[in-house]
Amino acid sequence: MVFDLDADKYLSEILFLFELVSESNTTVSSLLAWGFLRPMSRTGVKHIGKKLQLQLYKTPARRLFGNATPRPTISDLFNWFNSVQKEKYPATLYVTLLSSGSSKSSTVTKESRFSVTSPLRGGRLSGQPFKLPTRRGFTYESAAAGALIACYRSDGSSLAFALSTGDIMVYQNSVISLHLKGHQGNVYDLEWNKNEGGEGWRLLSCGADCTARVWNDSNDVVLPHPAYVYSARFGESDARVVTGCFDQLIRLWELNSSSPRLISTYVQHRAPINSLCWDSHGRLFSGDAKGSICVWNSTISGLHFEKILNESSEEYRNETPINCLYSHPSGGRLLVHYRGSKMCLLEPKSGLKLISYSGIYNPRLRLASSISPCGGYVISGSEDGSVHWFDLERGDLVAVTTLATSTIDPVMAVAFHPTCHAIALCSLSSECCLSVLEFNAADTGIEGAKRRFHDREHFKE
């Protein structure tokens, strides 16, 4: 959990109270034990940056009788804490407290933190088919981390990518123009706001530190969760955010206030939610770790569950985890990337499987595939370090691109430039954790990478 407060100012006044709860298959849960933690001891010793072993205590006997006994309140826990009679529970809890400091990089001033430039000119024309890249235009190296996810602004002016350390970098005008610090650990998802003519830029992120964050020019916003947050999307307006969490709940947040407000939580999934995706018709699709795809309608009052889209599929019956969902630019089809090297295109109303794509190697990791802005290609990374290009309509494998590195590292995610013939690749390789590949008509191959072309029957070099 992340708490947005001044640790130095309030450290001596804070008390953390913990509950150890047993969850059953029913809606009934029982409290097994409880515990507490003072961030600063009575003698003034700070417990920041240390791994602490906390003694747990048994629930007072009066709470163990009767099925109708309500869950303890904060007042109950505080009374137990103040009681001199505490019976030890035969277990301990390990806790680490960290102070994250300012969410803004100390090397970037507020005035120079971010500047929006005009979109790149002379790139891909509207409606023009995407051309496969021929050269590596930019590479970011990081000895300590790989890149997990990347996202272009809709005008193509900036590229945000996240490292496994929790750092978020913004690439603009051929340089790293912004370094965002705040997340602790993996960042699983990124999205730029769509209302670029409105109140300015916003960047949405979420990660393993149990938070989603909205970054902007002035006040960054933290949305706390009880578990990992695997996916986050702006709503139909930038004033709302939807998050998908490991605790199987979808949350809807309101940002138009002095502080963020949780509008509602939605219980429909039976497994951690791995991916969220809007289509052009305003429907929200959510996919989970047991292969279920839920369809939601959005109104002013919130989200309304419509149906499970893929109940008749083999992947749903086998509870195959969903890595990611991606809507076709036209909104008429939905790309579903299952764990275990399975990708397919669904009709978003009936759930009918239209086309399947095979060839990638993905037995273990949560990879993110994509569809080209022209709607002609499906592209996905692979755990063997390659990138696979498929013809979206036929399902044929068109080409395989492999980065020239000394080790074989998974390509975790891909992101198409919206207005140019360019694509960003996120890899766990320290040599090129982020690579931007570009098309140039004068090139005969890819500098710094290998590519094999495929037809229906054999390879072509």
UniProtKB/TrEMBL annotation:
WD repeats lie at residues 180-216, 222-263. Keywords: Repeat, WD repeat. This is WD repeat-containing protein 55 homolog. It holds the Pfam family WD40. GO terms for cellular component: ciliary basal body. The keyword Repeat applies. The lineage of its organism: Eukaryota, Metazoa, Ecdysozoa, Arthropoda, Crustacea. GO terms for biological process: motile cilium assembly. It comes from Daphnia pulex.
